[in-house]
Amino acid sequence: MIQTLLYGLTIGAILYFFAIGLSITFGTMQIINFAHAMVYALGVYFLISFMPMVQGSFPLATVFAIVAVIPVAYLMERFIIRRLYGESLDYAMIATYALLLIGTDVIKFIWGNTPQPISDPIGVSFQLFGIDIPMYRAVVVLLAVVVFVGLRLFFTKSIVGKIVVAALEDTEGVRCLGINVDKYFSMVFILGSALAVLGGILYAPIATAEPYMGHDILLIAFAVVIVGGMGNLTGTFVSAFLLGMVLAITGRYWSQAADTMVFVVMAAVLIFRRSDA
Amino acid sequence: MSNLNSNSTLSGVTATKRITIYRDMVLIAAGFFALSPLLAMHRVTDFMIFCIFVMSFDLLYGYMGRLSFGQMLYLGTGVYVSTLFSLHFSPNPILSLMAGVVGGAIVAGILGLIVVGLDGASFALTNLAFNQVGFFLIGSAFQKVTHGEDGISAGVEPWGFLDFANEYVAFGFVLLCLLLTFYVLRILTSSPYGIVIRSIKENESRVKFLGYNTFFYKWLTFVLAGAFAALAGTLYTLYVGFVSPTFIGPLNNVEVIFAALIGGAGNLFGALIGGILFMTMKDTLSTHIPQWEWVLGVLLLVIVFWLRGGVTGLIRTIYNYGKEKMAKRAAVEVEKG
């Protein structure tokens, strides 16, 4: 049971990394970004390519992969997403979905179709209440908490974060202060993409790397964003761990039903939320 | 949208309007007949079923402005309800068809109560989520009944002259269903009901202020779209005879979205043209390039950035441009005397 709970926490952490970018993009730009799943998978494949260059050092390869994804995210933001600001939501959704289709095929073209396993970079486990717990998973959960605290500080203390939070509330108002909102949105978009890559890389040793890995998590991450409230950063954190738990506990008894259970929770939340709106 | 008011009266559809509808239906039938020697007849039948599905999606997206990423759920419901009905209750094709359509409408009616109150992103994604749930129920949870990934053969048997093994009968029947769908949707979208749903697309709160119960209108549209999607699904059951969870796969939603967009959303002709274009593209590309989804992606980007009206929009722009030029030339000639 403890192992299930720990698994839930780990999945929750990964979901948090992924969903935070989606949530920010939606909150600031009103755009549902399907291409987030592409960035997520791309980061993992970059890691696979960089691993041999840095003598198999996982943390170093992770840093390189994140750095390598930044220009991709920038180009996407600059040439596709920025052109769709303030346009109808449908077109933005369709355009980012198109990016996901293209990106997935590019990944298949470069790295092939077959799933590639990535070994546990720590490979040590420790004992807790007489149960073996892989150190790696504990590190992932810890990292999520660190990122959460870091983001909180970023959004409450730093000037960039404050501008973004203000713009989440009232984009026009911030623009009227003479602040170039687009520039800050662009920064936050890249930050979100980098966190998604981090999530993907941390998840890869638990599962495997395959071109459609982003598709699988995307839907669940959308559920996280909807349950947590779009653009609500603390809500995203809480709902990521909550739905991670739902996934783990359902998966323990009936693995194929895990995803479905998440959507059932989401539907329930939607129904109840509407009643008080 | 310019003829929104001129062609419709409060009582519904005028006589001239009705004549243009019949003319359009003859044109469509002629078009599909003309296509069948070019491609093969069985492929055209396939195309027509897909076109019905695209029209059902277009009612929801093109006319009411609600983008759903989960329309496959209703197609799949039609497919599986009719298949299971034919196996367990009656092999009669017409009864199976009706069962499938009613099943799709019921599922849409229940889920619609939850979904319709949402807007924009939540609407699209919740539909996608429900589609995923349906896929799971068909593919895994009720594996004993549906045979999961292995698929299942329908138990439909010929009834009178309705034998779907006969190419011509299948073609005729599907064409009939397509024309019926076109007729019903055409009448509906140009009726007062149609004006209300188009107005919901433009500005829902204003429609609400006018005293319309927008929730009901949206729900009704959702159910209609679900029922017509289920009709397309049952036709797949009758025609293909073998069904598998790909008919309810959430990843296939992009196909119908793409078809509606490339043809031109909010326009039944656009839906038909889009359906044919997409199917032709899929057939030719998938035989030449093993990975062809990126082509779909690139074309979608082209549509979003430069070709919002789709093919029908493009034709209309060219036509209007030509008309303007002609008018100018005529004006110049008049001036010259």
Strand content of chain A: under 5%
Task: Kindly provide the name of the CATH class of chain B.
Answer: Mainly Alpha
CATH architecture of chain B: Orthogonal Bundle
User: How many structural domains in the coordinates of chain A?
Assistant: 1
List the helices and strands and how they pair.
The complex is a heterodimer of chains A (277) and B (337).
Chain A: H1 2-29, H2 36-50, H3 58-81, H4 89-111, E1 116-117, E2 125-128, E3 131-134, H5 135-157, H6 159-169, H7 171-176, H8 181-203, E4 208-209, H9 213-228, H10 233-253, H11 258-276
Antiparallel strand pairs in A: 1-4, 2-3
Helix pairs in contact in A: 1-5, 1-6, 1-8, 1-9, 1-10, 2-3, 2-4, 2-8, 2-9, 3-8, 5-6, 6-8, 9-10, 9-11, 10-11
Chain B: E1 8-9, E2 12-13, H1 15-38, H2 41-63, H3 72-88, H4 93-115, H5 120-141, H6 143-146, E3 152-153, H7 167-189, H8 192-202, H9 204-209, H10 214-240, E4 242-243, H11 253-263, H12 268-288, H13 293-306, H14 310-336
Antiparallel strand pairs in B: 1-2, 3-4
What this model shows, in words?
The complex is a heterodimer of chains A (about 280) and B (about 325). Chain A contains 11 helices and 4 strands. In chain A, about 50% of the residues are buried. Chain A is mainly alpha-helical and about 280 residues long. Chain A has a single domain, classed as ABC transporter involved in vitamin B12 uptake, BtuC (Orthogonal Bundle). In chain A, helix 2 packs antiparallel against helix 3 and helix 3 packs antiparallel against helix 8. The radius of gyration of chain A is 19 Å and the shape is globular. Chain B is mostly helical. Chain B contains 14 helices and 4 strands. Chain B has a two-stranded antiparallel ribbon. Chain B has a two-stranded antiparallel sheet with strand order 3-4. In chain B, about 45% of the residues are buried. The N terminus of chain B is likely disordered. The chains are: A mainly alpha (about 280), B mainly alpha (about 325). The interface between A and B is large, with 39 and 39 residues.
